[in-house]
Specification:
Largest sheet: 10 strands, antiparallel
Number of strands: 30
Strand content: 15-25%
Helix content: 10-25%
Shape: globular
Distance between the termini: 43 Å
Radius of gyration: 27 Å
């Protein structure tokens, strides 16, 4: 198989007998090679914050951290969430070499488990922070000499409590301890982090196959090309392949490699259904400055996108033209940034483009359009050796695009070759096989339940239901209601929006060359008497149908008194003037006072809040048209999910009605926007949750 080709060489690569899928076999496979007899120092923490050494027999619950030594090439696989700091040497994970700083690592069983790979350092040791330095002093006081010294710290970030909201995902980070792992857990286990000795029955270990490592080496170390003026060209890496081939995993590894080299990396996500940093339903360009050490739902919405476009669907098949326009707009924003950086003499920031898995028919046409827009300098093609007739891009037909080709063997679509994903294997853990809609549910739950500490650390609050959270009160007149292609009568717009998940749109920070850049004073002027007709038109895409507020008020006359009328636009926001910020739940609409109550994920307190730039909301299509909707667990959250689901099953209607007073007293009727007694009238059958929420394997 050729490791690289020019853009015009698009023939199928030589088949490989080995597939780079994470290791998963019927027989237990040794995953952790670390010897439990290596030196270990358990660390406790007083209420004053002072650290001290614990007795070796101290319970795991009392451990604040554990320091242990490793030999070069030792591996340690674990499940859970923890902070890791390498005090001596280095540890590789997700192709990120950690040393001297605390890294938060997420390792759920729904994804390949993280493997820590110990390595020695040829250069000087990295600088440590105060706590890490104190831990290293406690270690050296024990006279322990090892090639690599690692500190693992317990974490209570709230994401491990995801099962309180969605019981189907309760065992993502926690599971029963297998017999062969008990010695490891007693040696280096901390609360929330469980070492794993062997894997079997569908469990996987995150590894970097040989051909992936070669492609990563070439992509991250290759000299930059020069343009006609002998200026370095910013590297653009496009990763393509069919669904289930590991594009997102490879892109994550590539981002970590590039962050280590350049310090900053732009990440363009064009997969509407499975985004990495942005919420599902949006295409986004995000500036990444730190390593990515977890699956997408562990960092969804944590970084405001440099620019984003909202479509509100999980596939572009119903509106391919807008999809292509969104990609082109993001590519233009990136090019404008590169030109401005070059004018300032700064180093150009590379970009990684993760494409969608639709590679046939219209999907292939959209991939051609993407390559035309982003002009990749490197094109990584994941392929399946068993499917030699998969369509490939012929860059000879793409004008001005001649990338360096890199081939990688894709993951097998069967992610659990070791056994049934719903069975508990010899490891004692229940392996959850997540489909695409499961991943979207996790991302949306992570986004809606996100929170921040005063220091700007990402946490989650799973103890407070969405219905119990204080919403943001926004005047109706200060918002534009973009209804997309939905043919909703103006009199029913507020009813259609109420109780739905909408996209929050704000004025763009990077409008691009030649576009009007809104100042803070101009944005404040938008709300002087509500968003004006002219502003609504400027913030909408050309050709959108508008129901102007001035026309509505003119028809109602002066005798109607104060009327709260929104700006209604049957179309989408402008790709140039606006950018997508986040999702929000429309908790309620108070027509009398003229306010919309929005439950919006909180923004980081250490950066400037973007809320002053919010100008409207976008109502996407419903789930039947591939739209984004509120996850069922979030609607049922409040402690009565099981009873509410049982009451909505459509069985034993008379018995349910007899129990209605008791159920009301227990609070089942308080679940927002969920009907418990819907069984009368035309079309009044209770809506069913998607199959992934009730599958036996996820119970």
């Amino acid at each position: 198989m050729p490791s690289s080709q020019t853009g015009s060489q698009t023939g199928s690569p030589t088949p490989r007998t080995q597939s780079p899928q994470p290791r998963s076999t019927q027989e237990p496979v040794l995953a952790t090679t670390w010897d439990a007899t290596m030196p270990v120092v358990a660390i406790g923490q007083f209420q004053t914050g002072e650290l001290h050494v614990l007795d070796s027999q101290a319970p795991i619950a009392q451990r604040h951290a554990v320091i242990f030594g490793m030999q070069a090439n030792d591996t340690l696989v674990f499940q859970g969430i923890c902070d890791i700091c390498v005090l001596k040497g280095t540890v590789r994970m997700y192709e990120h070499e950690s040393s001297g700083q605390w890294d938060r690592v997420y390792s759920p069983v729904s994804h390949p488990l993280v493997s820590l790979q110990a390595q020695t350092r040829a250069d000087e040791e990295a600088e440590r922070d105060a706590e890490a330095q104190h831990m290293y002093e406690l270690w050296t006081a024990q006279n322990n000499e090892c090639e690599v010294v690692v500190a693992v710290r317990a974490v209570d970030c709230g994401l491990e409590q995801l099962g309180r909201v969605a019981p189907a995902y309760a065992s993502l980070f926690t599971g029963s301890i297998a017999a062969d792992s008990e010695q490891l857990v007693q040696a280096i286990g901390v609360p929330g982090m469980t070492p794993v000795r062997t894997v079997a029955a569908g469990l996987q270990v995150l590894q970097t196959p040989e051909d992936w490592a070669q492609a990563l080496d070439q992509a991250s170390t290759m000299p930059q090309r020069l343009d006609d003026e002998f200026e370095p060209i910013a590297p653009v890496y496009a990763v393509a392949g069919a669904q289930g081939q590991g594009k997102s995993t490879f892109s994550r590894m590539l981002v970590n490699r590039l962050v280590a080299r350049f310090g900053r990396v732009f990440y363009m996500e064009t997969d509407l259904g499975q985004s990495e940093f942005a919420a599902p339903g949006a295409l986004a360009l995000t500036l990444v400055t730190a390593p990515v050490l977890g699956p997408p739902f562990t960092h969804t919405g944590r970084t405001e996108a440099y620019h984003a476009a909202y479509m509100g669907v999980v596939t572009p098949k119903n509106d391919p033209d807008r999809y292509a326009a969104c990609v082109q707009r993001l590519a233009q924003v990136y090019c404008d940034h590169v030109r401005s950086e070059r004018a300032c003499g700064a180093q150009a920031v590379p970009m990684v483009v993760n494409t969608q898995g639709w590679t046939r028919g219209l999907g292939l046409d959209l991939l051609y359009a993407l390559c035309q827009s982003v002009a990749p300098t490197h094109f990584v093609q994941a392929y399946d050796p068993a499917n030699s007739d998969a369509p490939l891009i012929d860059f000879a037909t793409v004008e001005g695009c001649d990338p360096q080709m890199l081939w990688i063997t894709g993951m097998s679509p069967d992610r659990t070759q070791g056994g049934d994903a719903g069975d508990a294997g010899e490891s004692g853990r229940r392996v959850q096989r997540l489909a695409a809609h499961d991943m979207r549910t996790l991302s949306l739950l992570s986004l809606m339940y996100s929170a921040w500490t005063a220091q700007g650390t990402a946490v989650w609050n799973m103890h407070k239901p969405l219905a119990a959270r204080t919403p943001l009160k926004v005047p109706i007149c200060d918002l534009v209601f973009w209804m997309g292609e939905e043919d909703v009568p103006p009199s029913q717009v507020l009813r259609a929006v109420n109780g739905t998940l909408v996209g929050v749109v704000c004025v763009a920070r990077a409008p691009g060359a030649g576009a009007h850049e809104w100042s803070r004073d101009e944005i404040r002027g938008l709300y002087a008497d509500g968003i004006s007709d002219q502003a609504a038109a400027a913030l909408s895409e050309p050709g959108a149908r508008m129901l102007l507020r001035s026309h509505v008020r003119a028809r109602m006359g002066d005798d109607a008194g104060p009327v709260h009328v929104p700006q209604i636009v049957y179309g989408m926001p402008s790709l140039t003037a606006t950018t997508f910020l986040t999702h929000a739940l429309v908790r309620s609409i108070d027509v009398r006072s003229g306010h919309v109550h929005l439950v919006i994920p909180p923004q980081s307190p250490v950066v400037e809040s973007p809320m002053y730039r919010v100008v409207g909301i976008v109502k996407g299509p419903g789930p039947s048209a591939f739209g984004i909707d509120v996850p069922v667990p979030a609607m049922l959250d409040g402690g009565f999910a099981e009873r509410a689901m049982g009451a909505s099953s459509g069985r034993h209607t008379a018995a349910r009605r007899r129990r209605a007073p008791m159920e009301t007293n227990l609070g089942i009727q308080e679940a927002p926007y969920v009907s418990v007694e819907v069984d009368e009238g035309v079309g009044a059958s209770a809506a069913r949750a998607r199959g992934g929420q009730t599958r036996r394997a996820l119970q």
